[in-house]
Structures are given as structure tokens and as C-alpha cells.
Amino acid sequence: MKGKIVLAVLAGALACLVPLLDGGKTTAREADSKGTFTLAWSEYPSWSVFGVASEKGLINGDKGKMGKLEEKWGVDIELKLLDYDGCINAFASKACDAACLTNMDTLSPALARKSVSIMPTSTSFGADACIVVGINDLDELKKHTVYGLTESVSDYAFSRILEKNGKNPADYKFEKLDPAEAARVMQTKAKNIDAIMVWNPFVLQTLNQRKDAKVLFDSTKIPEEIIDMVIVGDDVLKKSGGTEFACCVADCYYEFNKMLEDPSKRKGLLEDLGKKFSSLNADDMDKCCQQTRFYKTPDDALKLITSDKFKKTMKIVVDNYTRRKVIKEEPKIGYGSAKDAPDAQFRIDPTYIQMVKDKK
Q1: For the chain, which end, N or C, has fewer CB atoms within 10 Å of the first or last residue's CB respectively?
Q2: 231 Cβ contact list (under 8 Å, min separation 6)
Q3: 210: domain range?
């Protein structure tokens, strides 16, 4: 009997030693974990941040493994790399807890699943463009078919920029074509393809391939209307660990941007981002980041989403999608915490950015 007691004591002592031998990580990863949450992302400059951040140890995108920020917040983040449509569908069907989506592409999923923007990551500032060959102005463009993805960010930018220039989008021919294919046919000088509306990397690639091509107009004409975000299900935020998950995602993004601002690390990190984003080199990736302006700090993000201007912008976005019947009905948009906007279907909430800022 005494032998059994001695063995039990030794076993208990050995169990206590294990977390010490691995630096205490076992304790942090097992005892403090509030669950595993999934984040779906696609290759885009400010969303590729999460893929590179996983490689750098800020988080660990594999289920059951944790980087230093996951340990800090006590959550396990599993990254799911999908194409962009896949991210939209996964979020809408609740196949993921959170997804990297634009403000306009969240409108439709929000009708079926209450959605919360926990942070903006970037805005298109030239990353969406109408590229033409042999066309000099908007009046000439009427005579040509513009190829791009209908009911997409490109379509939104096309219609909005025409409207801002006093033109009626209905007077222009916009035909559906996948942006990768639209860029390819223009780059190979296919006949009758002289106008496309696409986003990066296709903008940059096409201009590099065809020296006779030029940008007729781009998203600099509609500043801070196209906003890249991280969207989390309202149902997820209500779960145990949901708040910590949102904070960990935001913390990861801002910590990576600190690294990116370090001159000694910038080129290497741009190269790493470029590998995630159509295999671009550091110089091209730097240009992409200029055309996709990052909200690098909590203050940058809070300045955007708490402004009256942003509320007006969201009204413009919703009106555009409703008028053109891209969405079947208008979702209820709210601002602030769940208490501030309990009935909102799509809520822009600064709570988690503020919590990350306050915890620094």
C-alpha cells in the first residue's frame, strides 16, 4: 500500500515538473485555453498578414498549437486559407467563426448571420482600377465593354466612380469575367478586350505586362469606401473565449505592423507577404501595400470606424448595393457594442480594438 502511495506521489511530482521543463508552456496552453476559433482568410495584402504572423510565431495557425499572442489571450486560433468567395461562403454558412471580408461583401451574409466587424485592416487606395488600352476618357469608354467580376468590389468601384463623375453606370457595358481571366486576356492582347476592371495583383501585373495599358480611373476617387475588415459572428463573440479571440486577432495585426514598420525587418516581411500574395517581390509588394493602405495601429482604426464620415460612407455602400439589387434587402447597420446596437445585423464595434489598446 505504501509503495502505491509513494508511486502516486512520484507521478504527481513528475506531472508538476513537465510544464517547468517546457518553460511553463504546457500550463499556459492547456489550463488557460478558452477554446479553438477559426479565422478564414484569402490572399490579400492586409489579410496575408495573418499567414505570415503565424510563420513568425505571433500566433500559430494550426489547431491545437499556440503562438505567444494566443498564450497571452488564452485562445487557440486555427487559420483557414480559402479563396475569397470561399471565405464569404464559409462565414455565411457558419463553417468558420470569423473571416476576412470587405464592408460591402458582409452585407449579404449579415442578413442570415449577425455579423460584427471587430476591426478594419486596410482600404483600397488604387488597388481597384479600370485599365484600358486606346481609350482616353469616360465618354470613349461607353463604346467599349468593360470586363470584370459583377456584384463584386470591382463592380462597386466602377459604378461609384462613374456616378461621382456625373455619369450613369447604366450607360456603360460591364460584362462578367473572372478578374484573373480578364487580366490574362488583356495581358496576352486578346482581340476586343481593351477595358477591364480588376484589383491587385491583377492591376500591377497587367500594367507590368502591357506598356500600352493605362489606368483610366481607380479607387483613389472613392477614398475609404472599400474597407477590408475582420468579421466575426455575433454568436461567436457571445461564447466563452469569444472576446479574447477577437482581441487576439486584433493584437496580432497590430503587432505585425509594428514589425513591418521596422526598417531592418521591412524588406524581409514584404517578401514574406509577397509569397502569400501571388508571389510578388518586395518592391511590388511594397507598391501593393501603398495601394492597399493599412490601418496600422488601434488609433488609425478607431479614427475611421468611430467617425461620422464612416457612417455616411456605409450608407452610401448599402444604398449602392440595394439600388443595384446586389443584395435582396438592406441589413440593419449598427455602431458600438451589442448593448449600443442590439438589433443590428451588421455591427461595427470598436470594443476589441480599444481592449487591445488598453492592455498594452
Answers
A1: N
A2: 91, 98, 99, 100, 101, 106, 109, 115, 116, 117, 118
A3: 128-221
